[in-house]
């Protein structure tokens, strides 16, 4: 018997996707693996043990109720989904109470593709259907799977483009069969000295391949979200581009490759500073071109860098750190509506420092 999504399943998926990105809302990506959060903790001198991870994620999830006006979904790491705060309340219940969708990272990291120049695919398909069914039962409504592509003189190779597009489509179809909205994330790393034009060309190729594969796998686009990189020059490119140039290159690449049936583009921050990530998002939403999807944020580093700095692992700093999170979320919500300007930042909260990590892992 053939397997198709029922009308009721499609309706549920489409509603979840739309709800996450409605009215400028975006996503907090708090799904760093235990190794990756350790690198963030290193910067503030906090030891990477489960108790500190629990304290930090409690801080994020129990932020003031009004965060729900800016954040439509939070992506969690497996460990966090089952953690409780000091009073014994499940952290995910804070999100449920606020009407924020609970997301879960389901990939199992990158592995090398033989015969390529350090290119990768992403693993985690084995048992994914069972894991998705369990996550749905445990309150998750969406998932994330990150694929990584690299720009050099000879990459991304056609093999890497095709393999990553296919695995993203396969993951997306498994999620949808289990009532979970898949975030499709083909991240092109900002490492290198390539120009804005080069990044645009590669982004078009990669995103086009993803939508071909999603179509081949019968994925229901209305019940998905796309999480791409913004089109930016390489981190070491000597030419600097304005936010308006980044916005036009990004919009051009997406308008050429992303079907309007897909409801929301939720950009990763990719090592941009908090201020650049917000300014670029605003320029994208202020540009005078037809944009058939919501264009919003799904930031990890660019929503958390100044929160971590404010917290420093001290219980006495929790309230101040939560204020910082609320502020950054609000600034990004305004940017997702094209209504942000730097004068709204107030004194000293936005972080101008590059958050670039070479060959970034998640
Ligand atoms: P950054 O915003 O830190 O790039 O991370 C977002 C993310 O979820 C990458 O998978």
TrEMBL record:
InterPro entries, alphabetized: Aldolase_I_AS (IPR029768), Aldolase_TIM (IPR013785), FBA_I (IPR000741)
Highest taxon, organism lineage: Eukaryota
Keyword Zinc among record annotations: no
Keywords: Glycolysis, Lyase, Schiff base
Residue segments, region Disordered: 342-362
Catalytic reactions on record: beta-D-fructose 1,6-bisphosphate = D-glyceraldehyde 3-phosphate + dihydroxyacetone phosphate
Protease in keyword set: no
Pathway(s) of this molecule: Carbohydrate degradation; glycolysis; D-glyceraldehyde 3-phosphate and glycerone phosphate from D-glucose: step 4/4
EC number assigned by the record: 4.1.2.13
Protein family membership: Belongs to the class I fructose-bisphosphate aldolase family.
PANTHER family, per the entry: FRUCTOSE-BISPHOSPHATE ALDOLASE (PTHR11627)
Protein name: Fructose-bisphosphate aldolase
Species name: Clavelina lepadiformis
